[in-house]
Design goal:
176 residues; alpha+beta; Aminopeptidase; 7-stranded mixed β-sheet; 34% helix; globular
C-alpha cells in the first residue's frame, strides 16, 4: 500500500468535514446516544469552525492517503491553540482518525509517527494528547507508541461531561 501524508487545504473543507463526520461516527456512535453525537457534530464539525481552525496558524490538519484513497487525518495544535496544557515546549495531537476500512493496517502508526516528526522539526520537547477514558483500543495503541498517562481532563460531548486521559511522549531527553 502506497502511503502519503500532506497538509489539508482550506479548499478541501468539505472533504475534511466528511472524513471528520465519518470517522468520529464510526469510532464513537455505539458508545454514545444519538442526541449527544448530533450535538457534538454540530459543534465540532460545522464548516465555520473547521474553516477557522484551518485558517489558524497554530492548528494544522493533515490527510493520509493509502493508494490515493483518503484513509485518515491528523490534527495537531501548537500554543495558543492547544485544548489544555498550552506549554510552548509541546505539541498537541488533538485528532487522529482513520476510516474503518483502513483500521488495523498500520495507518494510525504512520500518522502518530508523522506527528512526532513534526514535533521534532518544530523543536518541541514532548507531544501530548487527550484520549477518552472508555476508548481502550486507542489507549492501548498510544501506550504501545510510547505515551504514558500524566493526568485527566473533562471533555464536553454534546450535553455530557466525559473524561479524557492526558497522555504524553517525551521527544527530547529531558527530565520527567
Amino acid at each position: 500500500m502506497n502511503i502519503s501524508i500532506r497538509p489539508c487545504l482550506i479548499t478541501e473543507l468539505d472533504m475534511l468535514q466528511r472524513i471528520g463526520y465519518e470517522t468520529f461516527n464510526e469510532t464513537f456512535r455505539s458508545m454514545n446516544n444519538q442526541e449527544t453525537m448530533d450535538k457534538y457534530f454540530k459543534e465540532a464539525f460545522n464548516k465555520e469552525k473547521l474553516a477557522a481552525e484551518l485558517n489558524n496558524r497554530y492548528c494544522k490538519f493533515y490527510f493520509l492517503y493509502a493508494d490515493n484513497d483518503l484513509a485518515g487525518y491528523l490534527k495537531v495544535n501548537y500554543v495558543p491553540a492547544q485544548s489544555d496544557i498550552n506549554d510552548p515546549e509541546s505539541m498537541e495531537v488533538e485528532r487522529i482518525y482513520i476510516r474503518k476500512a483502513y483500521k488495523e493496517k498500520g495507518i494510525g502508526k504512520k500518522l502518530i509517527n508523522y506527528a512526532l516528526k513534526l514535533a521534532v522539526e518544530m523543536k518541541k520537547n514532548y507531544v501530548w494528547l487527550g484520549v477518552w477514558e472508555k476508548n481502550v483500543d486507542a489507549i492501548s495503541f498510544y501506550t504501545k507508541m510510547g505515551f504514558h498517562e500524566i493526568g485527566r481532563h473533562s471533555f464536553k460531548m454534546g450535553n455530557e461531561l466525559q473524561y479524557d486521559l492526558i497522555m504524553k511522549k517525551v521527544i527530547k531527553n529531558n527530565s520527567e
